[in-house]
Each structure stands twice: as structure tokens, then as C-alpha cells.
Amino acid sequence: xxxxxxxxxxxxxxxxxxxxxxxxxxxxxxxxxxxxxxxxxxxxxxxxxxxxxxxxxxxxxxxxxxxxxxxxxxxxxxxxxxxxxxxxxxxxxxxxxxxxxxxxxxxxxxxxxxxxxxxxxxxxxxxxxxxxxxxxxxxxxxxxxxxxxxxxxxxxxxxxxxxxxxxxxxxxxxxxxxxxxxxxxxxxxxxxxxxxxxxxxxxxxxxxxxxxxxxxxxxxxxxxxxxxxxxxxxxxxxxxxxxxxxxxxxxxxxxxxxxxxxxxxxxxxxxxxxxxxxxxxxxxxxxxxxxxxxxxxxxxxxxxxxxxxxxxxxxxxxxxxxxxxxxxxxxxxxxxxxxxxxxxxxxxxxxxxxxxxxxxxxxxxxxxxxxxxxxxxxxxxxxxxxxxxxxxxxxxxxxxxxxxxxxxxxxxxxxxxxxxx
Length: 421
Prior knowledge:
Blueprint: H1 3-12, H2 22-33, H3 37-49, H4 57-69, H5 73-85, H6 93-105, H7 109-116, E1 121-129, E2 140-143, E3 148-151, E4 157-163, E5 166-173, E6 180-186, E7 192-196, E8 208-216, E9 227-230, E10 237-239, E11 245-251, E12 254-261, E13 268-274, E14 279-286, H8 303-307, H9 310-316, E15 320-322, H10 324-330, E16 346-350, E17 355-362, E18 367-370, E19 372-375, E20 378-380, E21 393-400, E22 414-420
Parallel strand pairs: 1-7, 8-14, 19-22
Antiparallel strand pairs: 1-4, 2-3, 2-5, 5-6, 8-11, 9-10, 9-12, 12-13, 15-21, 16-17, 17-18, 19-20, 21-22
Helix pairs in contact: 2-3, 3-4, 4-5, 5-6, 6-7
């Protein structure tokens, strides 16, 4: 039996028999108008089910609303159920969740159960510079009340998941920018955009400091000898003292991740921003139970690409790089079709054999010139790149002109690097 059926059974004894007289209906009307909220709720149920009166969902919703506004919590739950399915009212999951919340806070257990089962939402967005609107990576976007946070990628994109409906406090922080605090509506409409303003820094390279305390979850007691490690080069660490306190000095500004490890406790991590010349304080709790306290993003990297410098170039070079996942999203029929996604690079085909040749317009030569193509590090001559199948390609890189990495800068035009699986 579902929740709605349980609610109907609970109230069915209060309903008049089918075919009740107009006198019975009039008595319910008079009682409801006189402020009898239970009568309003029961009368609404009569209209919802068509028991004793013509079925009228809009009238039922109106009566439930009267009962709810007067403090009859079952009326709030009933009205929430109607909003959840759009019966007699406009469908609104957010409105339903809000009504469940009101009833639950008043002690209505069914409303608490319904609220817990309410649909969760996700919202995607982008972080950018307020003056230039260029994307900002490594910005922490957090909804503190929900314990939800995400870090923007190289294009400034992020996604917040498992969100309850409502308006939630929002906090955004990024190296070199002023902290932004605001509100985010869930479910909302479309992607959101967050623009940050640069902060005035006396010395943008000044080292920062991290201080904090590690405690056992649920107990106001510090944990000693916890290994705290900064998870980025140079990896530095320390141990918490007898009170669970610790300090890390000389921290390079930026996005940092700390790892906490102690025998008998579940390891955990924390991500934070260290601003130049400033101190950041953090309170961390560790649980004796092996449960996940904070999501850890794990990236599986190809040893082959690692050995050939792909990931290093992806961070430091200015070009276009395509991983296996990105190539799958593009879903090209031929390898040459990938060039359609690279600005400033076009694909032409030589007459006769329709062989694709990548070209770009460059001021160095004063005209079009051909990019050199390397397959697994070997320079290819008079070669049709479409001779290999797309599914064989593990990654691809495209560099133009002065953006070409030094080890491949033998031609002023640029290079295409293709790495097979």
C-alpha cells in the first residue's frame, strides 16, 4: 500500500457514506467556513475522491490549502501530494517538497517520509571573470547547508548534484578573487553563471598557511598523531598534536587538497583555497566507521600517454587536446572529422585520392601551410590519416604556430599528434 493509500484509509472513517444528502454537504461547508480545519480537510478529501459530492480536484486543492494555512498539517500533506502529480493544481515538485517540509516540521510523520522521497535535482553552471567573462577553473562552488560542493573545470564548468528543491545559500571561492556569497534556486531554469571580481593583492605569490583541528566524529575530543598531507607537489605533511591541532606553513596559494589518515579511522580529504599571504582554518572530523565522508574524484590515466608527455602538455601548452572520452562525445566518422572542432584549422582534400590534409592560415608564411602529422611519435610522410579507424585513437593533439611544443617545433605551421590505443 502506498503513502497516498495509507492517508486515504486513515481519513475514510470521517467521510459520509456515498450519496450523502445536501444537508451533510452544507454542514461541512458551514463547519469549514467557521474555522473547523479538520472539516475543511475532510471536505477536501470528499471532493478529491468524489465521495458524497461531485469530484472536483480544484475545489479539493482549495480546501486543503485553507486547512494548511490554518495549521492543519494533514491538509498540507494532502495539498503537497496534489502538487506532486499536478492534480487540480499546476505540477510543482518544489512546491510539494515545501509543503512536506512545513508538515514534517510540525510532526506529521507521513510528510517527513514523503519529503525524504522527494525528487532530487542537479544544476549545472559556469564560473567566469566578471570583467573579461573568461572561464575560471579551480573555483570551489559550495552549498554549505546541503554539504554539496564542486570544483570548476578548465572551461569553468561544474555540476551540483543530489539537490533538494528550495533556495539554498551559495558560497564561491577562487584564488585571486573575492569570495562570493549568494543564493541558488533549485530546481531553477537552465545553467547558472557566476562571475567573480578580482581581489587586490599586495603580493600574489606570498605563501599561505593552513591551521586546524582534527576531532573524532560525534565526540568533542581532538585526535592526536593524525597524518595530514598536502596532496600536491611538493607534498608536505605534519602530525596533529595531543589536542588534534596542526599547522602547515609555506603553502603555495591556490586550490589544495588535504588528506587525513589515522589508524582505526576512515581516511578523508578536504579541498580548500589558500589565498596569498593568508591563513585558512579548517575543522575536520574522522569516523571510526569506514564510510565515505567526502567525495573523492578519481581519474584513471593512460600510462602510455603519461610516458609520452600528453598530460603535461594538456596542462601547460596552448593547443587543442582530445582524450578518448572527448573523442567519443564528438563521435567522428573519420579521424579527419575531429578537425571540425579546432578553431583556425581546416581540412582540405588533395585531388585524386581525396586524402585529408590539415591546413591553417598563418602570418608566418603569408598563406596556407600544412601541419606535420605524427603517429605515436613518428613523423608521417604522404600519409592518409583516415587510414586508421577512429576507435583505435587514444588521444589527439593539435598545435598551431608558436603554440607548438618545443620537441615538435620543426615547422612554423604546427603539428598534429595522434596516439593510438
